[in-house]
């Protein structure tokens, strides 16, 4: 078990490795950090001494601790993507199902699906909340909770959105079966078959599947690994193609982990509004930023824009609860009706449980802890990949969430790599599933929210051997 000071030191180190602090930057003061982390001053000082011993930081006389000028080199990042500038139907998504199925197999090391290991989830608190829901809400539990969904849950969600700078009323929220259903309802509400949807490139394969399922076409827009979708490229695409919707994950996108700066978000909303095009905003990772405050919400930046906001508790509480929501703005009635037609209602029991976890403060407490856990997990995984993988490997530097996007040397075929890895009991997500054009042949996405033990490290070294194609038969 890690001691408290080691935990604090590891978290600081994670921030340093991901470039939160630049060489020469002052680190948080001892008292500030002790308050923030709710640990004693002695613990913080021991943590700082530990990092000083490791040569990462230096104490400057009476001025505090600073990041040393010569700190560890960061892994190079992938460049802004350059997808083909043409709308296409989506294909080749069958692979995703295999990855989903593998995520249930306990004998497989899970680096593929973006599903957090149970050790990152508040399973005990969920168990208690479900037991209490069953005991205290017997009548409700047995009944349908028709759209828009449980009022107590919608109130809590609206409160959180308001606190994040997005003023919505509980009646403007519809509870869904996860964010996936929210995305599907959003695109159903604003498109018809054959329409073109602009998406980030690479993008979440679940979104591509919805586009496929609704008979739409995807237009992949160049995307920067840290600042997200290129607004210049989107503007040109809007002139050139009959785009009917734009779907973006502004905060800690999947797989890049990009987070759009506030001014980009505002410009995105304005640009789309000026073309009368709705924005589908997927904010499923928004609560999982590693540092400072919660990033802003596009919908909150424009009270008049046509933004359909989608979220869920799958990455924070548990994906199996299947609780998500949509704030569809002017499409409220249509979305409520479509949700009703599709599956009548979201199950009542998990709605009650999530409402009580939000009301009781367990959600917020869990977030504080898990954000640090994810930061550490990303840092560990990135550091290990950088140490083991061959020259030419590039890694994203997400500031939130728990996936990294890894560019491998050009001659690596990630679809073959995924097959070879699976034959050795390791699941990874190959690059082409994140593209309608099946680009990113030499990229993989790795989920860092796995159980970090000898087996995980061995899996990474096996992957490194497969990537370098050194003595593959020996593993
Ligand atoms: C960006 C993004 N949106 C939506 C989803 C789907 O979330 P849910 O499990 O809540 O349906 C995921 C899950 O991986 C995701 O990464």
Automatic annotation (TrEMBL):
Assigned keywords, A-Z: Aminotransferase, DNA-binding, Pyridoxal phosphate, Transcription, Transcription regulation, Transferase
Superkingdom in the source lineage: Bacteria
The keyword Transcription is annotated on this UniProt entry: yes
Coiled-coil annotated residue ranges, if any: none
A GO term, aspect molecular function: DNA-binding transcription factor activity
Region (Disordered): 72-91
Annotated HTH gntR-type domain residues: 2-70
SMART domains assigned to the protein according to its UniProt record, in alphabetical order: HTH_GNTR
InterPro entries documented for this protein: Aminotransferase_I/II_large, HTH_trans_reg/aminotransferase, PyrdxlP-dep_Trfase, PyrdxlP-dep_Trfase_major, PyrdxlP-dep_Trfase_small, Tscrpt_reg_HTH_GntR, WH-like_DNA-bd_sf, WH_DNA-bd_sf
PANTHER family the UniProt entry points to: HTH-TYPE TRANSCRIPTIONAL REGULATORY PROTEIN GABR, TRANSCRIPTIONAL REGULATORY PROTEIN
UniProt similarity note: In the C-terminal section; belongs to the class-I pyridoxal-phosphate-dependent aminotransferase family.
Protein name: Transcriptional regulator, GntR family
Organism from which the protein derives: Thalassolituus maritimus
């Amino acid at each position: 078990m890690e001691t408290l000071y080691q935990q604090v030191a590891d978290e600081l180190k994670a921030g340093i490795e991901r470039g939160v602090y630049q060489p020469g930057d002052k680190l948080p003061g001892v008292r500030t950090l002790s308050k923030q982390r709710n640990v004693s001053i002695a613990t913080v000082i021991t943590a700082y001494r530990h990092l000083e011993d490791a040569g990462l930081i230096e104490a400057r006389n009476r001025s505090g601790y600073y990041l040393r000028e010569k700190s560890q080199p960061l892994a190079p990042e992938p460049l802004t993507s350059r997808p083909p500038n043409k709308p296409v139907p989506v294909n080749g998504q069958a692979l995703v199902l295999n990855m989903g199925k593998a995520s249930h197999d306990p004998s497989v090391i899970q680096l593929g699906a973006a599903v957090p290991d149970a050790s990152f989830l508040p399973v005990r608190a969920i168990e208690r909340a479900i037991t209490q829901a069953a005991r205290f809400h017997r009548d409700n539990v047995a009944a349908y909770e028709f759209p828009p969904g449980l009022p107590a849950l919608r109130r809590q969600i609206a409160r959180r959105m308001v606190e994040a700078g997005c003023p919505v009323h509980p009646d403007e929220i519809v509870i869904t079966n996860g964010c996936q259903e929210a995305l599907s309802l959003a695109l159903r509400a604003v498109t018809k078959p054959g329409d073109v949807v602009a998406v980030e490139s690479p993008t979440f394969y679940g979104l591509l599947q919805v586009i496929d399922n609704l008979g739409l076409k995807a237009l992949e827009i160049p995307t920067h690994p840290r600042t997200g979708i290129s607004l210049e490229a989107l503007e040109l695409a809007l002139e050139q193609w009959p785009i009917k919707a734009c779907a973006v994950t502004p905060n800690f996108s999947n797989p890049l982990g990009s987070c759009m700066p506030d001014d980009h978000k505002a410009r995105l909303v304005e640009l789309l509004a000026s073309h009368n095009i709705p924005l589908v905003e997927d904010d499923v990772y928004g609560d999982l930023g590693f540092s400072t405050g919660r990033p802003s919400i596009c919908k909150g930046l424009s009270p008049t824009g046509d933004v359909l906001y989608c979220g869920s508790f799958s990455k924070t509480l548990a994906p199996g609860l299947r609780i998500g929501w949509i704030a569809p703005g002017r499409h409220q009635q249509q979305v409520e009706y479509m949700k009703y037609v599709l599956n009548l209602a979201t199950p009542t029991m998990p709605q009650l449980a999530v409402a009580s976890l939000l009301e009781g403060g367990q959600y917020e407490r869990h977030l504080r802890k898990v954000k640090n856990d994810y930061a550490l997990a990303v840092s560990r995984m990135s550091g290990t990949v950088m140490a083991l993988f061959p020259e030419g490997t590039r890694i994203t530097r997400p500031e939130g969430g728990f996936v990294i996007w890894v560019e491998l040397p050009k001659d690596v075929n990630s679809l073959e790599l995924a097959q070879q890895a699976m034959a050795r009991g390791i699941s990874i997500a190959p690059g082409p599933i994140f593209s309608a054009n099946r680009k990113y042949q030499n990229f993989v996405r790795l989920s860092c929210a796995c159980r970090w033990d000898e087996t995980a490290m061995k899996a990474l070294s096996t992957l490194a051997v497969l990537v370098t194609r050194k003595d593959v038969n020996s593993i």
